[in-house]
Amino acid sequence: MNERSQQAPVEPTPTVAAAAAAAAFAPAAPSAAAAPTTAGGTTPARGTRLDPWLGNYADRTHGMKASEIRALFAVANRPEVVSLAGGMPFLAGLPLDNIADLTQRLLTERGAVALQYGSGQGEEALREQILEVMSLEGIQAHSDDVVVTTGSQQALDLVTRIFIDPGDVVVAEAPSYVGALGVFRAYQADVVHVDMDDAGLIPEALEETLTRLSAEGRRVKLLYTVPNFHNPAGVTLSLERRPRIVEIAKRHGVLVLEDNPYGLLGFDGDPLPALHSYDPEAVVYLGSFSKTFAPGYRVGWAVAPHAVRERLVLASESAILCPSMMSQLSVSTYLSTCDWRGQVKSFREVYRERRDAMLAALAEHMPAATWTVPAGGFYTWVTLPAGLDAQAMLPRAVTGLVAYVPGTAFYADGQGQDHMRLSFCYPTPERIQEGVRRLATVVNDEYELVRMFGTGAATQVVRGTQAPSPNQA
Amino acid sequence: MDAAAPDAAGAPLELLILAGGLSHERDVSLRSGRRVAEALRALGMSVSVRDVDAGLLSYLESARPDVVWPILHGATGEDGSIRDLLELVGVPYVGTDSAGSRIAWSKPVSKTLMARAGAYTPEFASLPQSLFREVGAQAVLDIVLERLALPLVVKPAKGGSALGVSVVTDAKELPRAMVTCFSYGENALLERVIVGTELAVSVVDVGEGPVALPAVEISTDGAYDYDARYNPGRTEYFAPARLTPQAERAAADLAVLAHRTLGLSHLSRTDMIVDADDVPWFLEVNVAPGMTETSLLPQAAQAGAQPLGDLYRSIVAAARLTQRD
User: Fold this and answer.
1) Which end of chain A has the lower number of beta carbons within 10 A, N or C?
2) Taking every annotated instance into account, which residue ranges of this chain make up the domain ATP-grasp (chain B) (predicted)?
């Protein structure tokens, strides 16, 4: 591209250039005004790529970088913007006074323990309480099978770490949780998506995919699935399909990685039985207090068959030594002294109201789009009218003071342009209504543009992360 | 003069950096603001960093900073409006006034003025979305392809950080490039590609007239897009640029010409291409150039011998004494 750069370098005289540059903005150099140019004739031997360690990074960090899309989310926390992008839970309903009291008591009475190292596997008492939480979803386990982690995100990382060699296949829903895709990418897994419908992952599609991959000689290690109130798809795996999914995976020798952060946040009826409840030897279950209590404690867990659990504990010790004792004891005290079931119930009611507001607003303002109807959780998954590209449209949305996450963030293979994830967890019903109204204007304007130029959605090479950071609304 | 020194009343100088704002480039602005603040705090200056929001005016009223440095990229930060507001408030500020900002912010306007001043600038058309609607998109694209010819750069007429920019080498890609561009703004600039060395030449004026810093040459694997700008790796920078003496002089002269012609103050950064005949072509000028770890003005300054903080301090000191019309 640059003919000049290929010419033989002129004799380098860097010191002249440096001196001239120094003089150029020194106020004491009056000659600068008369001769507003730098010294000539310098040719440094090498340029800089601004990172001396560039050649040293591991291959697996490829893709860990800033992106135009992620930068656009910087406006999400501004009050002018209605963000339907983030996944921050609604915490205003928590009894903060009670929590402050229990925290103070914890430090006064057991401070020396709370601020000390703990065991790599996590506090015994908390693991017992986790069993009680999980019993609501039919899980029967022993506290020895539980590993406490720094959010279930760390459990996701640990499971991937102990199972995935570069090039191994992880089968995941289409679309899939963006944070899991990031972990799989970091361990150089090859993600193969399997279709879902309104009843969740389609068993026949899973069977077909696993059979095909096996015929191709691929090593499939994990089936990653979010069975309840899927992020981002908003759908739930039907009761009828649950044992079938577990059976198919087991028959193909694929471990099920069941990620269930939203399971207790269903809007209608009791929680469905966890996949783990059908076959504890075939499933690693991930749970979290981030949505049922508060994400700031960063307490999640994994339940795994005993041999897997042994490795998880050692992997966790090598990563973090132990999960935070302060966090674990805080959560444990909260569970034993506060009405956590009542709190989860009140969260459910808040989120149901917001879900209803979102669905009503979509019906009113965006009749040309379609969307899933979540029976719990935080998200609905919108399919845009044909030809629209949610990623290309995001700058227009930011100008219009509304944000969402483009569908491409939730695929490992560039699909998803015609989708977007809308979250209803954080904004109030009134803000959701206003946000969807703004979004409809954005969609209409973009639709007009796309029709005018006759373009459609196309698979794009996407560089870098396309989802907001955890603290963006 | 020393900006960190006490003023006549004996109080230390208070600088307020404005960073953030409600624009597509908010993220870059926040990072730029933090970098400048760090550099100046290391020299002992009292620096606050603040967003532009509903509390700004009352804050200015009560905190009464000696100087404001708007490091706001995009929209109100560069289109002159924040500077108009600072002039209304009556607080000294770093950088170009509102009139100059309005001119620099619009690429078609600044290119026109630079062409009139005798500079080379790539042939271009400035076309709003509404015109495509009125005249018919395909008809407009056809004439663009026929008269301007490929390859073309399509970019928002206003805005930075290469957001919404496409290089079109195949006519089939042009409609998508238009859609991408119009997602960022109502006006598109379609510009012929000049093949050559991509340069950014920063200009600083600390009261002694505008002076060009060493040119920074940008050599990118692919387009110098957002990814290439903010993720170290794909772009190799040469500061000073690998230019012949006459090209180096011409590039510096062009940047100073832009600074003077468009009525810019204190600091600016002119982006240009130097062609095979050593002729620099004006592309655009920035009144709020990026100040991040990977930005071009800091690299240009570091190509000299004076530490960045010293440069920033000189700029603040000059701004404090600048009389606006």
Assistant:
1) N
2) 111-317
